[in-house]
Amino acid sequence: MDVAVGIVAQRGNERAQRLAGTLLETLERDHGADVVVDEATASAAAADATDETDDLPGVAVEEMADRDLVVSIGGDGTLLFVARAIGSTPLVGVNLGEVGFLNAVDPADAEAVVTDLVTIIEAGDPVPGRDLVRLEASAAGESWILEPALNEVLVHGPRRGHSGGATIEIRVDGTQYVETHADGVLVATPTGSTAYNLSEGGPLVHPDADALVVTGMAPTEPIAPLVVDQDASLSITVSNAPEAFVIGDGRNRRAVEPPVTVAVSTADEPGKLVGPESNVFEALEKLE
Ligand SMILES: NC(=O)c1ccc[n+]([C@@H]2O[C@H](COP(=O)([O-])OP(=O)(O)OC[C@H]3O[C@@H](n4cnc5c(N)ncnc54)[C@H](O)[C@@H]3O)[C@@H](O)[C@H]2O)c1
Ligand SMILES: Nc1ncnc2c1ncn2[C@@H]1O[C@H](COP(=O)(O)OP(=O)(O)OP(=O)(O)O)[C@@H](O)[C@H]1O
C-alpha cells in the first residue's frame, strides 16, 4: 500500500521548510509514499523558486486527519497546533523549537525515524507510540464543546493579575474541594503538567500516570494542587466577575458570562504520538 504522509513545517522557519522538502523527496523516492505538506510551507516553497522545496503539494492541516502519519517540524506550539487539527491521527514531532517537550526527534535523526515509521506502516505492523489523554470542556447552558486539549484547560476571570480574578469553586464528582478568589484554575494532563501547570506551582505528573492535576492560579488563599483520576468529573464555577474565559492549550478560547459552571473531562479520543518517546527529565533541564 502507498503510505499517506502529511508534513507540517513551522511557519516562517526556513530550516523546518527545507527539512520538510527533504523528507518529502526521500519518502516519495524510496517508499512511493503519497506525501503532502501544509499550505504555508507549500506557499513559502513556491515563493522561493530557487529552493529545493519548490512546488510542494499543499493542503490545509485539517485535511491531514485521514493520513497514516503526520510529521510536525517545529516547537511545542507547532505540534499542539497540528494535534488540534488532526485529532487521533498518528503524529511524530521533530524538534526545531526552543524547548521541545512534545517533539522527541532530533532533526539529524528525522529522515531515519520517519522512514522507519513509514516502513512499519507499509508492513501493516503496529506503530510504536503512546496515546495521550486529552481534555474537553463545556459550559452549562452553552452548546459548544472546547476542542480537545493535549496540555490543559484553563478557566480564568477577566484577566491575569491584580483585580482580574473571580470567585472560583472547584468540585470533584459533585463534592466541593474549594471555593476562593483566584485568577483562575487549570486542569492539566500528564503531558501538560510540564507546561503552564508547572509555572503555576503544580506538580509534575509522570507520563505513565493515569491522572489529571487541578492547579489554582494565584489564589488569595493557597490551594493545594489536587491530583485526580482521569475519570473524575470536574466542575469549575466562576462568579463575581463581569466575564471569564475557558482556554484549551493556550489557543482555543471561549468567553463565558459568570456565574457559570464549566465541566472539564477527558475526551473520548486520545491524541496519538508515535516514534521515540521524549525524556521528560532531560527536557526539564532546558527550562532551567
Ligand atoms: N506561563 C507559562 O508557563 C505559559 C504561558 C503561556 C502558555 N504556556 C503553555 O504553552 C502552551 C501553548 O500555548 P501558546 O501557544 O499560547 O504558547 P507557546 O506555543 O508560545 O508556548 C509557550 C511555551 O510553553 C512550552 N510548552 C508547550 N507545551 C509544553 C509542554 N507540554 N511541556 C513543557 N513545555 C511546553 C513551549 O515550548 C513554549 O516555550 C499552553 O498549553 C501552555 O501550557 C505556558
Ligand atoms: N505551518 C503552519 N501553518 C499555519 N500556522 C502555523 C504553522 N506553523 C506554526 N503555525 C502557527 O504558529 C504557532 C506555533 O508557533 P510558535 O512560534 O509558538 O512556535 P513553536 O513551534 O512553539 O516553536 P518555538 O519553540 O521556537 O517557539 C501555532 O500555534 C500556529 O498558530
UniProtKB/TrEMBL annotation:
EC number in record: 2.7.1.23
GO cellular component: cytoplasm
GO MF, one example: NAD+ kinase activity
Subcellular location: Cytoplasm
Main location per the UniProt record: cytoplasm
UniProt GO BP: NAD+ metabolic process; NADP+ biosynthetic process
Binding-site residues for NAD(+), renumbered to this chain: D76, G77, N151, E152, H181, D183, T194, A195, Y196, N197, L198, S199, A218
Active-site residues, as the UniProt record annotates them: D76
Catalysed reaction equations from the record: NAD(+) + ATP = ADP + NADP(+) + H(+)
The entry's keywords: ATP-binding, Cytoplasm, Kinase, NAD, NADP, Nucleotide-binding, Transferase
Cofactor entry: a divalent metal cation
Keyword NAD among record annotations: yes
Protein family according to the UniProt entry: Belongs to the NAD kinase family.
Free-text function comment from the UniProt entry: Involved in the regulation of the intracellular balance of NAD and NADP, and is a key enzyme in the biosynthesis of NADP. Catalyzes specifically the phosphorylation on 2'-hydroxyl of the adenosine moiety of NAD to yield NADP.
PANTHER family documented for this protein: BIFUNCTIONAL NADP PHOSPHATASE_NAD KINASE (PTHR20275:SF43), NAD KINASE (PTHR20275)
HAMAP family cross-referenced by the UniProt entry: NAD_kinase
Protein name: NAD kinase
Organism per entry: Natrarchaeobaculum aegyptiacum
High-level lineage: Archaea, Methanobacteriati, Methanobacteriota, Stenosarchaea group, Halobacteria
